[in-house]
Amino acid sequence: xxxxxxxxxxxxxxxxxxxxxxxxxxxxxxxxxxxxxxxxxxxxxxxxxxxxxxxxxxxxxxxxxxxxxxxxxxx
Length: 75
Prior knowledge:
The protein has one domain. It is built from three helices and no strands. It has helices at residues 22-30, 50-62, 68-74. The protein is globular. The model is unreliable at 1-7 (pLDDT under 50).
């Protein structure tokens, strides 16, 4: 996902602004591609399940503004 990551607000309490993943996580959350847990965390150190990954890919692929070249990479 592209965008101005600095302008995206980070909704996850466990992803600090100085984290290497902050910009990506904040942008994907703002784009509605990823969700956190009910306690307001992202839990990025936790192993992701196949279901969670499938949900992320499906949401990303459903984005109307995703470039065809980007969809081909995911495929």
